[in-house]
Amino acid sequence: MQKFRKWIYSLCILTGLLAVCTACGKADSQPKEETTEVVTDGPVSGPEDFKRLGMLIDVASSNMVKDVSYEIKNKEIACIKFVYNGIDCQFLASAVYSDFDLAGVTNTGTGDMLVSGVQGYNATYYKLNPGRVVFWSDTNIHYCLYIYVTAEDSVVDSILPLLSFEDHYDEREDVIENAEAESKAFAQQIITVFQNKDVNGLSEILNYPQELGSGESIANIDELMAIPADQIFTDKLLEAVGTDAIDNLRKSRDGDAWLIGSASKNIYFRMTSDGVYKIVKINN
Question: Per the confidence metrics, is the pTM higher than 0.85?
Answer without folding.
Answer: no
